[in-house]
Design a protein that fits this description.
Layout: H1 2-17, H2 23-34, H3 49-65, H4 69-81, H5 104-114, H6 117-132, E1 150-152, H7 153-169, H8 175-190, E2 201-203, E3 221-222, H9 223-236, H10 247-262, E4 275-276, H11 290-305, H12 313-328, E5 329-332, E6 335-338, E7 341-342, H13 357-362, E8 365-366, H14 370-383, H15 386-389, E9 396-400, E10 407-409, E11 415-417, H16 431-439, E12 443-447, H17 453-456, E13 461-465, H18 481-492, E14 496-500, H19 512-516, E15 521-528, E16 540-541, E17 556-557, E18 561-566, E19 570-576, E20 579-587, E21 590-595, H20 616-628
Helix pairs in contact: 2-3, 2-14, 3-4, 3-14, 5-6, 7-8, 7-9, 8-10, 9-10, 9-11, 11-12, 11-14
Length: about 625
């Protein structure tokens, strides 16, 4: 495993230094050049699924870079369609087109970040389509109302990840059985036992001309259809409960599919043909197809990173991505273009598409097709993580939810943790910070109980933020001597501790200082950087040259900070006008860093609030690398 990570790191480190900007951002700029202002991606004023594919790519680039222009582009495009009452321009529920659900992923993103009710209503509207969507006898969604009794591989990507995220957000626990069964039924009905590949579609009625009269399967293996299906698996699993009894079944399907498509990869180019395993008449017309190659590599790379696939599959992803860049990416007239995407391939309809090889070969292959571009953005931002993964490989980052355990009711009335937690995407959450840790190969976890030797075992980094006082929590959990002992013993044994307090009006400091004091640090009642309105210059903090933690950051922003006092073993790391803002300490085999503000929550990291001169995202990356370096 270490050898594989090293190979990938070396390859992508070279790629990163050999270009002006990451390829994901270069192609994203092409999108902005082609589809400007409020013009929907795809160039038509309709609620089109390919827009959602591209904008999910934008979301990933935003999370990888902290550059808010990608979020702004998402919101601007979606707001062209989503009206204030939650209705969606160009959307007709009664069409029962599963493609139309895909953009709901972006609707949920905007709801989770902004909390605006119009996005919740729009998501509810799309969810209501699934509640009444026509189904096969087994329960699989028809691809469209006009395609009765048919399940297409494409439909799993369009519907399942949105369905799973909605179910997670709004506590529809029983929906996960339905979501899992969509994948299970499709594999059962579309899989070829000899090759393990999946046919493009299945007709339960056996009435379609393209359908085999015995099995109902379409004739051939269209690679993009399998790409949609594989991407749907890795994306839906993001929201699947870890304990769900059918979760492993989805992981098993992914492994079987990847084993099958690996056998079809061209060993010279690393790419895949538009029609897989075709050996019939006219086979010389078959061609390497960009969107499917991107989709396969995305599913493989993400599947390995998430632990669904063996680490050995990383080499398969590397070969595939190399081939994609060499074969399909061309810089022309100053613009980075993606060649080689088939515009569309379907079945049935009018004029009738019979699923034959000649039909598939008749569809045009074009430059900068949004489906291809979207797939390329997804695979690029996934592959661009590779140089970072070795940093935190095998390490767990544990976030306290005991000393800070603020809860509120979600949209369904259920009480949930919300303040400084990994899952929260709105301003007070740590979603962006958690994403940076995951980009560096670490695993996220939360501790909902008092810290003990058993509870801290296995954690490399432990983060405690803004301990509650009675104004936050009627029954706060204050730090006690047993907590101090458990944590200091863990640090001495090699743990890395991050303490983030707050100004004294918003944080319990007295008991928290019994822990900080064990490392020579005291959070004081003196408050610094008391910013008025948005006078950002009042929150300026300069790490200084050759800073041992913030090695690439020039300027960052923190407000309402508790100033620190230090004594051995602690040392000042950053100060301002004589007041200490950051301090570090070494104790035994471990280390500690402390700051008097929870400054890495989404509001001040994801780029939506601060002017670009304040490099809080870059500072978060620097800090994450320092926290994950050495230690346990």
């Amino acid at each position: 495993m270490k050898k594989i990570i090293l190979i990938i790191t070396l390859v992508w480190s070279f790629v990163a230094t050999a270009q002006q900007a990451p390829l994901s951002e270069q192609v994203a700029q092409t999108v902005m050049n082609i589809w400007k202002d409020s013009i929907p991606v795809g160039g038509q004023n309709k609620w089109s699924y390919d827009m959602g594919v591209v904008l999910k790519g934008f979301e990933g680039i935003w999370m990888n870079s902290g550059n808010v222009k990608y979020f702004d582009a998402i919101q601007k495009k979606m707001d062209w369609f989503v009206q204030n009452d939650g209705s969606i321009k160009g959307y007709d529920k009664e069409e029962y087109n599963i493609d139309h659900v895909n953009n709901g992923k972006l609707v949920l993103l905007l709801y989770r970040i902004t909390g605006k009710e119009k996005y919740k209503k729009a998501a509810d509207l799309l969810r209501s389509q699934l509640a009444t969507h026509p189904r096969t006898k087994e329960g699989g969604f028809w691809h469209k109302k006009v395609y009765p009794y048919q399940m297409w591989l494409d439909g799993l990507y369009m519907g399942a990840p949105f369905y799973a995220e909605y179910a997670m957000l709004f506590n529809e626990d029983t929906a996960f059985n339905d979501i899992a069964n969509q994948f299970i039924w499709m594999e059962k009905n579309a899989r070829d036992e000899k090759t393990g590949l999946l046919h493009h579609a299945w007709d339960e009625s056996r009435q379609q001309k393209w359908a085999d009269k015995t099995t109902g399967k379409s004739p051939l293996f269209w690679s993009r259809a399998m790409g949609w299906y594989s991407d749907a698996l890795v994306d839906a699993l993001d929201y699947f409960p870890a304990s769900h009894p059918k979760r492993q079944a989805l992981i098993d399907i992914l492994n079987r599919l990847v084993d099958a498509i690996e056998k079809q990869q061209d060993k010279t180019t690393g790419l895949w043909y538009d029609i897989m395993n075709y050996k019939g008449p006219g086979k010389e017309k078959n061609y390497f197809e960009a969107s499917a190659s991107c989709q396969f590599v995305y599913a493989i790379a993400k599947g390995v990173r998430k632990g669904y696939l063996p680490a050995t599959k990383l080499l398969l992803a590397r070969q595939g991505y190399d081939g994609i860049v060499k074969q399909f990416i061309k810089v022309e007239n100053g613009q980075t273009n993606l060649h080689g995407t088939v515009k569309v391939s379907g079945l049935g309809g009018n004029p009738y598409r019979d699923g034959s090889f000649d039909y598939y070969m008749s569809e045009p292959v074009i430059v900068n097709d949004p489906k291809g571009i979207g797939a390329f953005l997804l695979v690029s931002y996934e592959m661009e993580k590779f140089p970072l993964l070795a940093t935190g490989k095998g390490k767990t980052v544990l976030l306290d939810r005991w000393f800070n355990s603020e809860k509120r009711k979600d949209a369904t009335g259920k009480e949930v943790y919300w303040h400084y937690v990994w899952e929260e995407r709105s301003h007070p959450g740590f979603y962006t910070l958690g994403n940076i840790f995951e980009n560096h190969g670490a695993r996220l976890a939360s501790l909902d109980a008092a810290p003990t030797a058993a509870g801290l075992r296995g954690a490399s980094v432990y983060i405690i933020v803004d301990p509650d006082h009675v104004r936050d929590n009627p029954q706060p959990h204050y730090v006690n001597p047993a907590d101090v002992k458990a944590i200091t013993d863990w640090v001495k044994a090699g743990g890395t501790l991050l303490l983030m307090a707050n100004d004294s009006n918003n944080c319990e400091l007295k008991q928290f200082n019994t822990l900080a004091g064990a490392f020579g640090i005291q959070f004081t009642d003196k408050s610094l950087n008391m910013v008025k309105n948005d006078n950002f210059v009042q929150g300026e903090v300069l790490p200084g040259d050759n800073n041992s933690v913030f090695s690439t950051t020039k300027k960052m922003y923190l407000k309402e900070i508790s100033a620190l006092k230090v004594k051995a073993p602690a040392k000042s790391l950053i100060s301002k006008e004589g007041d200490i803002i950051f301090a570090t300490a070494i104790m035994g085999k471990g280390k500690v860093i402390a700051v008097g503000d929870p400054w890495l929550y989404n509001e001040y990291v994801d780029g939506r609030k601060l002017p670009a001169e304040y490099e809080n995202y870059k500072a978060a990356v620097d800090l994450v690398k320092w926290l994950l370096k050495n230690g346990k």
